[in-house]
Amino acid sequence: MGSFVISKRFSGDYKFEYTSRKGKPIFTSNAYELRMDCEAEAELLRAKFDSCSFLKYKTAKGKFYFKVVLDDVLVAVSRKYSTVLMAQKGIDEIVKYGARAEILDFAASEVLFDDWEG
Fold first, then answer.
1. Residue 65: CB partners within 8 Å, gap ≥ 6?
2. CATH number, domain with residue 35
3. Cβ 57 vs Cβ 66: under 8 Å
4. What is the pLDDT of residue 111?
5. At residue 36, what are phi and psi to the nearest 5 degrees?
6. CA proximity to 81, closest of 98, 70, 93
7. pLDDT by residue for the chain (118 residues), tens digit each?
8. Closest CA to 41 of 22, 66, 18, 19
9. Which Gene3D superfamilies match (predicted)?
10. N or C: which end of the chain has fewer CB within 10 A?
11. Containing domain of residue 74, as a range?
């Protein structure tokens, strides 16, 4: 099962990524100023995956990606894939496991290894 991972960008905004069952990011959300807005959008998306649209694109360099649109609003953009088939597999995983994905909030954990000596 995949998961939504909430984290903080260097700019101070919040984002969520949908990661696959293997831990690879499939898409990244827009930026949100408040953590609670980011979490609410992830929960809304999880609840409404069945009504999402996936718009497919190709870059000038021949990579493939898709955009996740909910109620005519762009919510997220996928990572770049080397083939159309791999991009479709990303979409298929979202459709199959997205509604059951857990939401993990790593935004509060700013210092992960405060006593790290290496």
1. 56, 57, 59, 77, 78, 79, 80, 81, 87
2. 2.30.29.80
3. yes
4. 52
5. -65, -30
6. 93
7. 789 999 998 888 999 999 988 889 999 999 999 999 999 999 999 999 888 999 999 999 999 999 999 999 999 999 999 999 999 999 999 999 888 999 988 877 555 555 555 5
8. 18
9. 2.30.29.80
10. C
11. 3-105
Give residue for tokens 């898409």: 27
Instruction: Specify the pLDDT at position 2.
Output: 87
Q: CA-CA distance, 79 to 36, in Å (whole number)?
A: 24
Helix H, strand E, coil C: the string for 42-95 is: HHHHHHCHHHCEEEEEECCCCCEEEEEEECCEEEEEECCECCHHHHHHHHHHHH
pLDDT recorded at residue 105:
86
Our CA angle for 94, 25, 21, nearest 5°, is 60
Q: What global pTM score does this model have?
A: 0.83
